[in-house]
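G., the chain you wanted modeled:
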Amino acid sequence: MNRTFHNHHHKSRLHGLTVVVEADGDEVWVGRCDDEDGERVILLDADVHRPGDSAAATGDSRTEWLSKAARFGVWPRHRRVVIPRARVSGLKLLGDLG
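Predicted structure as tokens:
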């Protein structure tokens, strides 16, 4: 029997949900969680806010950037990102911010 849908039983409970990942160095990622475990967080269709780089060029503070992401979504600049778990200081649903 052919299956149309992938089997995601081995994925994290956050699979497919939009999350905020706080990483070391004031780096904040927003993206769709593909998977997460004790070693890494994998995001799809993600964007990042780092103080001083082009993502922050609009002058938005981290709080403003996250507020806009929660209201309007993000413009993904990264198709797939793997963040080592050792760099992650926080992981939460984007919807929990508002």
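Helices lie at 62-72.

Shout if anything looks off.
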